[in-house]
Amino acid sequence: YGYTFIYKETVQAFIRDLEHEAAVYKRLERIQGVNVPVFLGPSIFGRSLKRVYYYNHRVYITHITFLSWEGNYIDEIE
């Protein structure tokens, strides 16, 4: 279908940063998908993860933010 999804993982210590980012995307809601990515939420189900994922030694992923893009390619903009 040509969808582009981006996800960002983080650890417990940076949850406040994700909350701030979510608030910024809320303010940019009218231009999501045109000028900025579409914010899909803190997890694909709209809630925090119920289990911890391990990235590397002692790196415990507890939250994932999903984004999607809809708009023009940069080389199409004049």
Describe this structure in words.
- The model has no long low-confidence stretch (mean pLDDT 78).
- The protein has one domain (5-72).
- It is of the alpha+beta class and 78 residues long.
- Helices cover 17% and strands 29% of the residues.
- It is elongated and about 45 Å long.
- A hairpin with a 2-residue loop joins strand 3 (53-56) and strand 4 (59-61).
Protein traits:
single chain; 78 residues; alpha+beta; two-stranded antiparallel ribbon
SSE layout and pairings?
Elements: E1 5-10, H1 15-27, E2 38-41, E3 53-56, E4 59-61, E5 63-68
Antiparallel strand pairs: 1-5, 2-5, 3-4
| Proportion of strand residues | 25-35%
Query: Segments where pLDDT lies below 50 for 5+ residues?
Result: none
In helices, the fraction of residues equals 10-25%
Instruction: Name the strands of the widest sheet in spatial order.
Output: 1-5-2
